[in-house]
TrEMBL record, chain A:
Protein's name according to its UniProt entry: NADPH oxidoreductase, major, thioredoxin-like and ferredoxin-like subunit
Pfam families registered for this protein in UniProt: Complex1_51K, Fer4_7, NADH_4Fe-4S
Keyword 4Fe-4S among UniProt keywords: yes
SUPFAM superfamilies: 4Fe-4S ferredoxins, Nqo1 FMN-binding domain-like, Nqo1 middle domain-like, Nqo1C-terminal domain-like, Thioredoxin-like
Family: Belongs to the complex I 51 kDa subunit family.
Gene Ontology molecular function terms on file: 4 iron, 4 sulfur cluster binding; FMN binding; metal ion binding; NADH dehydrogenase (ubiquinone) activity
From TrEMBL, chain B:
Cofactor, free-text remark: Binds 1 [2Fe-2S] cluster.
Protein name: NADPH oxidoreductase, ferredoxin-like subunit
Annotated family: Belongs to the complex I 24 kDa subunit family.
Gene: hndA-4
Chain sites annotated for binding [2Fe-2S] cluster: 89, 94, 130, 134
Species for this entry: Syntrophotalea carbinolica (strain DSM 2380 / NBRC 103641 / GraBd1)
A Pfam cross-reference name: 2Fe-2S_thioredx
SUPFAM superfamilies, alphabetized: Thioredoxin-like (SSF52833)
Amino acid sequence: MGSLKEVRSSIEEAYKKKLDRPRIIVGLGTCGMAAGGTKVMAAIETEVEKLGLDVDLDFTSCIGMCYAEPVVEMGLPGAASVVYGGVYPEDVAQLIESHMVNKTPVTDKAEIQISAGGATYEGIPVMEKSPYYEKQVRSVTSRLGRTNPERIEDYIATGGYAGLEKALTMEPQEIINQVKISGLRGRGGGGFPTGTKWQFVADAVGDKKYIVCNADEGDPGAFMDRSVLEGDPHAIMEGMMIAGYAIGANEGVIYCRAEYPLAIKRLNMAIAVAEEMGILGDNIMGTDFNFKLRIKAGAGAFVCGEETALLNSIEGKRGMPRVRPPFPAHKGLWQKPTCLNNVETFANIPFIVRNGGDWYASMGTEKSKGSKVFCLTGKINNTGLAEVPMGITLREVVFNIAGGIADGKKFKAVQSGGPSGGCLPAEQLDLPIDYDSLISGGAMMGSGGLVVMDEGTCMVDVAKFFLNFTQLESCGKCTPCREGTKRLLEILERICDGLGVPEDIDTLERLAKTIKTSALCALGQTAPNPVLTTLRYFRNEYEAHINEKRCPAGVCPELLTYAIVEDKCVGCGVCIKACPVGAITGEKKAAHTIDASKCVKCGACVPKCKFDAIVQA
Amino acid sequence: MAICKCTGEQVESPQDVQLMELLEHYREYDGALIPVLQGAQDIYGYLPGEVLETISKELKIPFSEVFGVVTFYSQFHLKPRGRNIIRVCLGTACHVRGGSKIFEGLKEILGVDNGGTTEDLRFTLESVACIGACGLAPVIMINDDTHGRLTNDGLDKILEQYE
């Protein structure tokens, strides 16, 4: 292909025509499929065929409203398209009849409507004004749920590869300058200025340089990289190609978690079609720039998210971190200068090149520019993916976008930054979300997972959960991480089992600080964070476990006791049958009792009692 | 290579042929070991000792290094596995939404522990740190299918779909 300009206008025209046709689009990201999206798709196909409708059927990725999955969008020419949530196969016939045949949207199933300049329907929130999207700014996520990720035409028609086209007319140094002006910082969590990193690699001496994309998103509670990989694979490739041109590399590797099979499939498809069209390969768009790209699937090791461990893994070795310096910018993959960035960082690049660094820097705070994609999970009403400007407060995210705490319970903490992050309490809800504020609060940005916890979560148990994770995932190369996290975990387990002693708190603190300063890589250096922040904000829970042998949230089984409230018990005997060890006794129609010495605290009796007579304390 | 019980000769199974093709493809490739091990595991379902020896010899990588890599990564397996692999997510989002109860439930239904395979080789059960479908927690993955928003009551029905 000579220039993309020649084909772009015809692709754009075809895309516009597509929007002038009646269409039904099903969200088929991993989350959509998990909620049953494929079955909904099949039901739609059957129904459309049965009615003989002239309708385009298509699929897209995750629009971000995971709470509403399975999601189906229906659109008619000249009108806004309506996104329906919670659509199951049994709803399909009625939805199609009402929306596609009678042209009347089903308001009570509609989540939002997306206007493309046409008329809008009454009674359905417009996307930009709906509670979930109102405070969001969608750039990296702008194509998610809007285009078919398996078709390069959709990508090009929505401005794709225009950034690369523009970059190829610029001087490499000018691109690096724009990235510097943008203020973009590494979205993997470290927050190192991207432009500065690029400059290091560009200035490094080497006959061969590499671009590596870290798509080994392993933080429990974070899935933004998966969503972008599945929903907009070309954007990552475009970002990597621009990086390659800017720093003088002609080879790139995407290191993707093997747990993301759909992402790997769509990336493979995207690479193949881009090569076919001359966007990837030799003499890209008729210039002298060559770039080839391959995918390396991970093999299951959390530590491979650490940059030097990731490089070892690509080289076919055990994924253990290397001592730095030398940094990858100077000696990375195969000892050559390597520019290693995260998925979301690369996905931002085409927008920055197209719109200029100043445009990007106009969003966010002084030291954290632009937008950041967060994954909202845990005990909230609206779980999903949200792209917000840096500097927005935790409160706005939890209570406005995520819709507050589920089941009418009380907010307790928000866990940010995965196992390396920390738990922030209600007092910190007005903290602006940016790299430096989160660190000052004791947590960190991490890749962007926000797990919200309610009053039913035990913070000692949460710390134990994370330590169990990091202890299992420690590669074992350095002693502080290998032995230290194990000892931390042992102490936490003892406390949860009711065997804690008052000295434990001091030991935990001392050990945590030692590991933080002496571990080899970021995994070990940040592993104690969950312990340190829970001790900082929820010390009273540790004290209750140790001194009063009580778990205030009612989670740690060894510290629970069950009792029957005499006034409420009618003596029906259901709990006696439910108890597997015969700890409950009592005459018919008289209040029963639980023998604490026999009770194994399985809790089987609680849901069986229709009178809420069994309490745990 | 298998040894024929009747003649005592070495015979090549169709899987061995596939392995040789795989090795041929990756011979000149930088960092071939992990992709080859992944491919070999796809072919055999797990990584038998003889296969590791063949890989070591063909790629000219010391056996100790091959074994070191296999035991480092959680996705490589040295023992036969079930036809269907159940991965129970125990990530943070699933943890706070009761993922461990699902895990306990599956252990009870299948009668195996973490990493265990049922006697009829129908299922292997294992826990994973995060599948990345946190919005639908608690979640499990069977082979490449993800099942979300689970409750213990629905588990039997899901398992029925897998032979």
